Amino acid sequence: MSEQMADPKVDTGLADPAARRALTSGFDAVPGAGKPDPILVVDNIVRQFGGMTAVDVQHLEVQRGLITALIGPNGAGKTTFFNLITGFDKPTTAGKGAHWAFDGRTLDKTSASSVAQAGMVRTFQLTKALSAMTVIDNMMLGAQNQAGENLLKSMFRGTWAKQEKEIEAKADELLARFKLFEKKHDYAGSLSGGQRKLLEMARALMSDPKMIMLDEPMAGVNPALTQSLLGHIQNLRDEGMTVLFVEHDMHVVRHISDWVAVMAEGRLVAEGAADTVMSDPAVIDAYLGAHHDTDLGDDALLTDAALEGMADEVAAEDAEREAEEEAEGLR
Ligand SMILES: Nc1ncnc2c1ncn2[C@@H]1O[C@H](COP(=O)(O)OP(=O)(O)OP(=O)(O)O)[C@@H](O)[C@H]1O
Description:
Elements (H helix, E strand, L loop, with lengths): L16 H8 L13 E12 L2 E12 L3 E5 L6 H8 L13 E4 L2 E2 L5 H7 L1 E3 L5 H4 L3 H22 L3 H18 L15 H13 L5 E5 L7 H16 L3 E5 L3 H7 L2 E6 L2 E6 L1 H4 L3 H10 L13 H25 L3
Parallel strand pairs: 3-8, 3-9, 6-7, 7-8
Antiparallel strand pairs: 1-2, 1-4, 4-5, 9-10
Helix pairs in contact: 3-5, 5-6, 5-7, 8-12
The structure holds adenosine-5'-triphosphate.
Adenosine-5'-triphosphate (ATP) binds next to α2.
């Protein structure tokens, strides 16, 4: 593998649920709580649209190696916050105290592509333009973030063809992992809702991120694929990646989050472990104020056995696929 395609997989020891619980039990369950090893630190990010404050996050730390959910009622500012920290929008406080750093690197004034190159990548919904492209072309587009200037240089050096082959091999591997290999040459627009979500995730992984940010990964996904998607997300964490995701489905949040941050009316109003944060009065207030019918989830399914079962299922499928690929000489 070339340097920029370095494998981000690291053993954080956090594949073990007991280790994760031991870690998060040391976190303060208060908004803006400090973490022992934050991969993302955000300060004073404010975004106003006209007179309306969509985001006003004074301090947030995201712990490395965990799955953190960002939840909150409709209009709480979650998507805007994602856009701000990934360089797709600018805080109103830019140059006036807004500061955020990823993996020790200040990102305040960088473009979306340099944020991606720093290792923080968000998934994108399949837009019209992307739907009109094939699955493999979508994947190759995902690699652009990763290669950046190096890609340009290598084109001049005449090594592009070799690099393109390497990138396509990596795309094939990811497509196989996400059960999309058969669809490689199909138009992305022809995929089902769940397959699109898988493609969005696979595309983001083309750049070997240290942290993947998922915006509503389960929206529009049928129950059969939900299990598989949840398993994939947990496996990314178990391989050492940090996951930050926005999700409305509280059952999903409870099932896979190690830590939950809650936004309401632009502000961070609570933080805590999934099984306790939902009973925080600030969270109940925020949701009740927004819509009364939110189901804040059910603890009955929140067992280690259920979670590990899902992760094991996907890991077994991965192993089976790898064996098949080896037999077919794909690897
Ligand atoms: N480009 C924009 N121009 C004006 N207002 C905007 C813009 N983008 C977002 N807003 C407003 O900012 C607020 C926060 O929106 P945002 O989409 O970030 O919330 P959210 O928490 O992601 O909501 P949802 O869960 O419904 O997706 C909303 O009131 C929204 O109408």
